[in-house]
Every structure is written in structure tokens, then in C-alpha cells.
Amino acid sequence: MSTTKPKSKKTATETHEIEPPIEKEVTRKISKKPSIAKSSETTEIKVAVETLEKEVKSSSKKNKIFKAKVIRDSFSFPEQDYLKISELKKTCLASGIHVKKGEILRAGLHLLSKLSLAELKQAVEQVEKVQTGRPSSSKN
Question: In this structure, is residue 91 part of a structural domain?
Fold first, then answer.
């Protein structure tokens, strides 16, 4: 007969070492961020920058110019009227004034609004009547 020693059964507590509980103080020390001492110069600079930013914001609100809403529209013009607009643009450019087509039309509106009723009626009668809308496409 062979004599063998019986294997001893170890309990769960014997096989695993039990770790001691982590103290709360250790975790607190780890979670705290190291504080950086601020010099008086950096705080003074930050305060100065903040006050300047506040002044710029308040002054920009006071000086803000409200822009008028722009409405886009399309118009039908005879070729002769387009030529008149281009001639007016060339005349303005020759005298050193850069102007756009829309600005010329708006200037014309301002001048027409200053006319008397009789002069306005005469100016409107001189304008050629054109067919409104888009031209129909010819289908063959």
C-alpha cells in the first residue's frame, strides 16, 4: 500500500490574502489638486483685462448701427432703360464715384419722391409700359 498524505483542503480565507481597507485620508489627499499660488501681478492683469472687455462690450452696444432689412425683388426693364443705367454708371465712374445699379435705382426713387404730383404724373407717363412676368418659353 502506498502511503500518501491526504491533501489538505484550504478555505477561501486561507488562499486569498485580505487587503486592509484604504483609509479615507489617503483618497482625499490624492483627489485634491495642488494649489498654485497666484502672484498679485497676475491677478491685477486679469482684473484689468476683464474691465477692458466690459468697456469694449458696452461701447459696442452703444455705437451699434441698426441695418435696414433688404428685400430682393426682380423687375422687367426694356433694353433702353438698361442702357441708361449703364450710361449713368459710366458717368459716375468718370467723376470718381463708384455706384451700383441698385444704388442708381434708389437715387431715382429719392428724386421722384421730391417731385410735385403734376411732375410725377408727367414722369410716369414718359415711361414705356412693359409686359410683366417672365417670358414664356417657345415650344416647337
Answer: yes
